[in-house]
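S.,

Sequence below, as promised.
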Amino acid sequence: MSSTQDSQEPGIRAILDAFANATPTMVPERALSEAHDCREAITPHLQRAVIQMHDLSALGRLQAEGDWRLHSFALHLLAAWRVPGTYDLILKSLTLDDRYDSRWLMGEATSDWPHLLLTTFDGDVERLFGIVWRDDPPWNSDLILCCLGVLTGAHHHRPGDRAAIEAGFEKTLATCEDELIRDSLMTRIAKLKIHSLMPQVWRVIDSPPNQPHPYRLDIEKALQEPWTVDFSDPGSEPNPIVRPREDLLAIICGWWYFQEPDEFVPESPLERKMWERE
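The prediction came back faster than expected:
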């Protein structure tokens, strides 16, 4: 180890500790900024932190001994820096053999993963559709919606992948029995203006006799709207990270963990009475 690396070690440990001990509603902005300043030196530590969580899951000890915070900060930074191998690390975390471990490890930042996967996407469209089409996905529809989000972003940003993505969308639309996933996909098709698939979308919408489809207005609205993305909005369209510092900070500030808790304000006398009793 060089003398430069030796001198950086205490600072790196302090950054990692700040991530691991991050408290609710307080984003460790200083540690994030310092991590960008020592990117080359801290990268191996971040990679090891992620792999350690995978190893703990394989041993059945993740939720007892692991730390989702350091793991999530690590993947966000590695993705923003486009470190080779990060795409595989994110997918591995999303598809652990223990589905509950994946949900525990990744659930706090569910809306982030499409951005990070798209930033590091390796172009393997079939791999993502393989997750969408699995009979028993590692964890509920959140993972499938995440993959569809990545594919939506790839369709917008990567013209060379559009034919393969549209073929996968068509198959999913024809075979999916989950209403949430199907309706989400239809809105994505409309948002992307995939005109070749719109006839199938309208057939799905018009199929229930004498029953208006609840997503019809969403789809009609999506057809009129341009593609937009705002990293300060956790529900925004998937977009690759372009400005590592600014974009990443906006994404992390959107974690549920860092949001102020909602305060329940009873409106009626009965609600106030029940609230006081609790």
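Residues 273-278 have pLDDT under 50 and may be disordered.

Coffee later?
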